[in-house]
Each structure stands twice: as C-alpha cells, then as structure tokens.
Design goal:
With 157 residues, the chain is mainly beta. It folds into two domains: 4-56, no CATH class; 62-155, RlpA-like domain (Barwin-like endoglucanases, Beta Barrel). The chain contains three helices and eleven strands. It has helices at 4-13, 111-114, 140-146, and strands spanning 23-26, 33-36, 45-48, 52-54, 57-59, 62-72, 96-99, 107-109, 118-123, 132-136, 149-155. It has a six-stranded mixed β-barrel with strand order 6-10-7-9-8-11. A two-stranded antiparallel ribbon has the order 1-2. Strands 4-5 form a two-stranded antiparallel ribbon. A hairpin with a 6-residue loop joins strand 1 (23-26) and strand 2. The N and C termini lie close together (5 Å). 22% of the residues are buried. Residues 1-5, 11-43 and 48-58 have low confidence and may be disordered.
Length: 157
C-alpha cells in the first residue's frame, strides 16, 4: 500500500532535475485538490487520485505521469546472476516489472499501453536507472519490439 510516507520517499528518489513538477493531493475539503510544487529539482509528476466510491470499494491510487518504460528479457547480458530469477527471488513470468523506486510486491498498471493488466514489482534495474520501469518479456525480440516508451503509471493500493 502506497501512503504519504512512500510518496515522500518516491519524491526524494527523484529529487534531481526538472522544475515543472507538481503534486496534487486531496485537500481538507475532499471536493477540491490542493496542488503543491516541490523544490525545483523533481522530475516526475505524481498525483494522488481522489477517492472514488465504486460500489463497496474506494479507489485512491497514485499516478506517476510520463514515466520512461523500457523492456528486458532473460538474456544473461541484461541480468545479474540467474537470468530467470528476479531480485526478489521469484521466477520471471509475464507481469513482472523492475523498478528501483517501488517496494517489491507493489502492483502497478500502465493503462495507456496495457489497459487493465496488473504488473508486480519483483525485480530491480541497474542503479543508473532510478526513475524507470522495465517490463520483463519472454524473448529478446519482444523486448526489442516494445522499445522505449513514455506513459502514465498507476500505483495500486
């Protein structure tokens, strides 16, 4: 579950470059949004979606805008140690992603590209990629076809 502490941690990790970032939080009056611009270096636009009643459930997911998304496969030159075991110790499978800024087990969606498919953070990237998500594909050709894209990422509760 992503909370304000996690949000602050995500912001701290990305506290590096861009000046045009703003965060949108629910204000004291739940019908309005309070927008704050963090110090000048943050490079991601992170929003918390206001809770929306859907029957008996409440949806208050975080959205990271315009995140770079790449792809990888179980090629030895793209992985550490065992190419079929993730950094969390799980076997690779469809729906696995690598991200250095989210805890293992975090569920995400990339609706612009994959619709309602849910991915799980179970792997890590090289430390030089603190602000990207890498999606695992079963073949190098699929990963190459995916390429590099930019999309909004929804972090699920």
């Amino acid at each position: 579950m992503i909370n304000i502490v996690s949000l602050a941690l995500i912001w701290t990790i990305f506290n590096t470059q861009n000046t045009s970032t703003s965060w949108t939080f629910p204000s004291a009056n739940n019908n309005e949004l309070a927008t704050q611009t963090p110090p000048a270096q943050s490079q991601l636009l992170i929003q918390q979606v206001l809770p929306v009643e859907t029957g008996t459930e409440t949806n208050s997911d975080l959205v990271i805008n315009s995140l770079t998304i790449t792809a990888y496969s179980s090629e030895p030159e793209q992985t550490d140690n065992d190419p079929f075991i993730t950094a969390s110790g799980k076997s690779v499978r469809s729906g696995i992603v690598a991200a250095n800024f989210l805890p293992f087990g975090t569920k995400i969606k990339i609706p612009e590209i994959f619709g309602d498919k849910v991915f799980t953070v179970e792997d890590r990237m090289a430390k030089k990629h603190p602000d990207k998500i890498d999606i695992w594909f079963s073949s190098e050709m699929e990963a190459l076809r995916f390429g590099v894209r930019t999309a909004d990422v929804v972090i699920l509760d």
